[in-house]
Amino acid sequence: xxxxxxxxxxxxxxxxxxxxxxxxxxxxxxxxxxxxxxxxxxxxxxxxxxxxxxxxxxxxxxxxxxxxxxxxxxxxxxxxxxxxxxxxxxxxxxxxxxxxxxxx
Length: 104
Known about the structure:
The protein is mainly beta and 104 residues long. The chain has one domain (9-103): Barwin-like endoglucanases (Beta Barrel). The chain has one helix and six strands; from the N terminus they run βββββαβ. It is globular. This is RlpA-like protein double-psi beta-barrel domain-containing protein. InterPro entries: Expansin_CellWall, RlpA-like_sf. It comes from Coprinopsis marcescibilis (Agaric fungus).
């Protein structure tokens, strides 16, 4: 089921370099690492999720990002480096942080 509800999900929060491919994301927009952008895995992504706001909480901090891409190999979501830095340094092993998140 694509995640259009207000239910909270939990998992591990990774980040990745969205600029290395230099092609638009699944929502048709180019993504910069400085944007608060999110890619969703198959359990949650559908084209109707493009542009939706997601609230992420980790390490006692909260940030919001916008869905701009899909991540076929992801179980949950992936962030650009900009919002990830709110929760942990980019040097965090494998960029992994425990998190909760929900669609707004």
